Amino acid sequence: MMMIVVVALIGLVIALGLAFSPWPRRRPAARHVDRLVAPPPPLPDSLEGVLTGQLLAGEISSRQYVRALERIAARDERRHPMSVPRDYRP
After folding, report:
1. What is the pLDDT of residue 41?
2. Which residues are CB-contacts of 77 (< 8 A; sequence separation ≥ 6)?
3. Contact, 24 vs 18, CB < 8 A?
4. Is the per-residue pLDDT at 39 higher than 70?
5. Residues 13 and 20 sit within 8 Å (Cβ to Cβ)
6. What is the pLDDT of residues 2-24, one digit of tens each?
7. Which residues, 6 or more positions from 28, have their beta carbon under 8 angstroms from its beta carbon?
């Protein structure tokens, strides 16, 4: 009876070792390396995103960036003015 328990435990340890041991990864062949190129970053969805990308890429200066954002804010204010509700106190 003791021999059966020992054999079962050894079998269990071996099975768990095989189940959780890392398998060696296959390395891609040299001819396939050119296809493993990172995808291009997604394009920005807004004008602010485009301006931020240009600032980070060094295409525009920080002064140009701030002025462009000021113009965008002024345009948004003209198109969609914000009305502040009156303060009603009981």
Report:
1. 77
2. none
3. no
4. yes
5. no
6. 889 999 999 999 988 878 777 66
7. 36
HSE, side-chain direction, 13 A CA sphere, residue 89: 0
Question: Which tokens belong to 43?
Answer: 């394009």
Tokens matching residue 75: 């345009």
- Residue 45 — pLDDT band, cuts 50, 70, 90? confident
pTM for this structure?
0.47
User: Is 23 in contact with 17 (CB distance < 8 Å)?
Assistant: no
- How many other CB atoms are found less than 10 A from the CB of residue 89? 4
Residue 73's nearest CA partner among 50, 48, 43 is 48
Q: For residue 68, which of 82, 84, 49, 87 has the smallest C-alpha distance?
A: 49
What are the structure tokens assigned to 74, written together? 């002024």
